[in-house]
Design goal:
Blueprint (H helix, E strand, L loop, with lengths): L12 H11 L16 E10 L4 E10 L5 E10 L9 H14 L7 E4 L12 H9 L3 E5 L17 E6 L2 E7 L8 E7 L3 H10 L8 H20 L1
Parallel strand pairs: 1-4, 4-5
Antiparallel strand pairs: 1-2, 2-3, 5-8, 6-7, 7-8
Helix pairs in contact: 2-3
């Protein structure tokens, strides 16, 4: 699939902040694909090899609605950006872009293990990579980065809006009954309500939506194979 050439990754912190502030205006938040029209979804995740100073990435393509694996791609890339909260996309996206480029088919939606617009400057991992990919992206985070919310009911499907600086930036969604909720926010080319609906539609019996759950499994496998080979 085609990848947009937004910027390189040889950046200072000051340049990264400048880029975030300029790229946030390019995001399109609203509507998004109808669930009934979706046939392919993807998930991505990143792990790290601290010994080798490498980012390890996995992209998984799944059918919808069966959520069966069609394609799995893994790879590594040198880490060029330090670990700084709020700027993790500059550290993690670079390893994923070549994997998306090699996908056998273009997914209708990409699920990201991270934040979308629920971010201090409105452009988390899911939003940032969404601009590179040019397709709808949904942020599926296991913890809150910004904002406040009311208590969420204990049943699967219960949710409350996540509010930051006076506006809704996502949903706090119970994806499994009696288990901690997920923080779902639109990345790019999808709205808040549709992002929540998509995340719930792609969640099975586990807390984490299946696309990002499978990506997490595959990147862990890849890391283990690399370490066992050393």
């Amino acid at each position: 699939m085609k990848i947009n050439n937004l910027h390189n990754f040889d950046l200072t912190l000051a340049k990264a902040k400048e880029l975030q502030l300029s790229l946030v205006d390019k995001l399109s938040i609203g509507n998004g694909p109808e669930i009934a029209g979706i046939s392919l979804v993807a998930g991505c995740d990143v792990a790290f090899d601290k010994k080798e100073n490498l980012a390890l990435g996995a992209v998984v393509l799944l059918s919808y609605p069966k959520l069966e694996k069609i394609d799995v791609l893994t790879g590594s890339a040198p880490l060029r950006f330090p670990y700084i909260p709020g700027y993790l996309s500059f550290r993690e996206i670079e390893v994923l872009l070549p994997l998306f480029r090699r996908l056998s088919s273009v997914p209708d939606v990409v699920f990201v293990d991270g934040q979308g617009i629920a971010h201090p400057r409105g452009i988390g991992f899911a939003s940032h990579i969404g601009l590179f990919l040019g397709i709808p992206t949904v942020g599926c985070a296991k913890s809150r980065l910004v904002g406040k919310h009311d208590g969420v009911g204990t049943e699967k499907g219960n949710w409350k809006p996540l509010l930051f600086m006076g506006k809704s930036v996502g949903s706090v969604l119970r994806t499994k009954s009696n288990v901690k909720p997920m923080f779902i926010s639109p990345g790019h080319l999808v709205g808040i309500d549709r992002a929540r609906e998509l995340a719930l539609a792609c969640t099975g019996k586990y807390r984490i939506p299946e696309p990002t759950r499978q990506a997490d499994i595959e990147v862990a496998k890849y890391k283990k194979v690399r370490q066992d080979g050393d």
